Amino acid sequence: MNYKTQGKMLFIATLLLVGVALFMLLWGQYPIDMASFYEYLHFKFVGTSSLEPETLSLINNIILDIRLPRILLAILIGAALATSGAVFQAMFVNPLVSPGILGVLAGASFGAACGMLISDNWLVVQIMAFIFGFIAVALALMIGSMVSNTRSSVILVLGGVISGSLFTSLLSVIKYVADPYSTLPTIVYWLMGSLSMAQLHEVLAVSIPILLSIAGMIFMSKYFDLLSLGDEEAKALGINVKMIRIIAILLATLASSLAVVMAGIIGWVGLIIPHIIRMLVGPSHRLLVPLSALAGAIFLLLADAISRLAMSVEIPIGILTSLIGIPIFIFVLKKARAAWN
Amino acid sequence: MELKAVLEVKDLHFSYKKKKVLHGVDFSLYKGEVVSLLGPNGCGKSTLIRLMLKLLESDGDIKLGDKALQKCSHKEIAEHIAYIPQYHNVPFNYSVLEMVLMGRISKLGIFASPSEHDYQVAHQALQKAGIAALASSSFGELSGGQKQLVLLARAIAQEVNIFIMDEPVNGLDYGNQIRLLELIDSLAKEGYTFLKTTHYPDHALLVSSRVVVLNGGKIIADGKPEEVIHSQMIKEVYGIAADILMHEKHRRCLPVFG
Questions:
Q1: A22 assigned to some structural domain
Q2: Is residue B174 located within the same domain as residue B252?
Q3: Contact B87, B149 (CB under 8 A)
Q4: CB distance B90–A228 less than 8 Å?
Q5: B144-157 and B116-128 helices, crossing angle to 10°
Q6: Residue A158 reports pLDDT greater than 80
Q7: Which of A14, A164, A183, B145 has a 20 to 30 A CA-CA distance from A295?
Q8: Domain final position from B105, B135, B159
Q9: B110 touches chain A (CB under 8 A)
Q10: B94, A238: Cβ pair inside 8 Å?
Q11: A2: pLDDT confidence band, cut at 50, 70 and 90?
């Protein structure tokens, strides 16, 4: 595949994302037709409109207060989780890892819950989430290397399972001591994963670090291919393996921890999206990483649509991505073995 | 005027933890040479080439051109030396072209991705290695010999003069061994410099301008192939009997049962 085809694929995926996002903006309990949407935009940018002022203000509310923040958040989080998943898989040369499996999501949620317990400041929560997300990966790696000094895919997964369980237990301790009337429900609902709390200004604030870390990972993606050759060969080809690993792991941890802070634990996205993309376009990370970002965003937008509309009450999106993700993963695992073995 | 070494090692000692592997090795590589590094298992061949690529850290005196190797970044080293390891499996299934493109990484700026030029260089490298037809095949499905050629093509795409190969014919079938040696020979005639480790004195006779013998962590012989490879040396290093015969224009090393 040459670089022109790659550019075309990225362009098509971007178009698809924009299309799905636009559709989500108009579709819902209160559908907005294209004509009204056009009138609304006309009003926003030119100042005149043929619509009634009440209709305009209703559309304005629906779009700016309800749908747009949610859509933007779904895009950010889907992209963050899928990109981090692709990057973790590249870093550990292990197609079985993801932010969830390495314990990052559990660690970050423990950190965020601690943050909620000790402070009302959102920044404290974010920083705590990042720190514990990072501790969780480090722990998974440590346990992995303690048990076996070979670089076994399975051992690292086991390390992640242990690290994840540890932080899940610690999180239970926090839940146990949290105020059952205020803090506990907040923590529980947030953990199930939801995009509905999103406020536009919060989303915009968190979008900066998330987008920067995703952009960083995309820029580094050409180095990731070399890591799968083994450290020695990668060094001989001229890259600083240690530095690339550290920076990439930090960026992936940051992106997935912030996703946890904003929407709780949304599992499986980071595992299945890179697999699906690898199945479709091959393992080259220059294409895999940005395409995973776009596909993750599209996937979460669609999952959110289902979570809103499948039942009369909203299903927490974290539960939904697991329900969708598990069968897809079983299917993908069977098909994808050829691509990494 | 004395020729300038492109890669120079002076009185190099190295140990893994307590096990001493190299005991004072002096070695220089000059432009245009094809050097075969011979020696039994565990003599320190692989250690020596890893040290020269800075894949092992040491405080020994190794120079790349005029610069101390320790002061060179991996990128700088890759701008002068290409390393061709023994073929191996890769966990992700890259295409052959992708594998060769990886040789271009040291040429790319931090934020650049491979350009049309890089793709062209990769295709030309495949052509030079005689495997242009394999460009879009997947690396994992190739035979050992083809994989080794891809790694050689990757080194060609790196656009450097010095190639360091670790037992290039290892694991290849008889035909591919000889074809690879022929390819090395023809690349050497184009001016590439080779340093390769080998287990086969006979291959060293076929393709080398110089042979270095490493035994027990010391260089015990260094010179023209016909001077270095003789029955006594084989007996001393490998503990077996061998005859050196002339066949057409070439010397050949033929082991005989004692």
A1: no
A2: yes
A3: no
A4: yes
A5: 130
A6: yes
A7: A164
A8: B159
A9: yes
A10: no
A11: low
The count of structural domains within chain A is: 1
Please name the residues between 1 and 30 in chain B that touch chain A, using a CB distance below 8 Å. none
In this predicted model, what pLDDT tens digit does every residue of B4-37 receive, in sequence order? 899 999 999 999 888 899 999 999 999 999 999 9
CB contacts of B115 in chain A (<8 Å) are 3
Q: Kindly report the CATH number assigned to the domain that includes residue A207.
A: 1.10.3470.10
A223 touches chain B (CB under 8 A): yes
Nearest residue to A268 via CA among A319, A338, A322, A341: A322
**Token pair for residue A27?**
């579709």
pLDDT, tens only, B147-169:
999 999 999 999 999 999 999 99
Asked if A88 reaches chain B (Cβ–Cβ under 8 Å), the answer is no
H-run or E-run covering B163: strand B162-165
* Structure letter (DSSP) for residue B95: B
Total domains, chain B? 2
Considering the domain boundaries, does residue A100 fall inside one? yes
Contacts of A219 in chain B (CB under 8 A): 110-111
For chains A and B, what is the number of CB pairs under 8 angstroms? 97
Put simply, the answer to whether B119 touches A225 (Cβ < 8 Å) is no
Looking at the fold, whether B93 and B142 belong to one and the same domain comes out as yes
- B71 and B188 in a single domain? The answer is yes
Q: Which residues of A touch B94 (CB under 8 A)?
A: 225, 228, 282-284
CB contact under 8 A, A237 and B106: yes
Structural domain of B58: 1-80+161-258
Range of the domain at A257: 80-266
For residues B129 and B44, state if they share a domain: no
- B149 plus B171 within the same structural domain: no
Looking at residue B146, its amino acid is Q
Assigned token pair, B218: 């010391």
From the CB of residue A132, how many other CB atoms can be counted at a distance below 10 Å?
28
Structural domain includes residue A288? no
Q: Angle of helix A285-309 relative to helix A269-281, nearest 10 degrees? A: 130
B211: confidence class by pLDDT, cuts 50, 70, 90: very high
Q: Which long-range contacts (CB under 8 A, 24 or more apart) does A28-36 make?
A: A28/A62, A28/A67, A28/A308, A28/A309, A30/A58, A30/A62, A32/A59, A32/A62, A32/A63
What are the chain A neighbours of B83 within 8 Å (beta carbons)? 233, 236-237
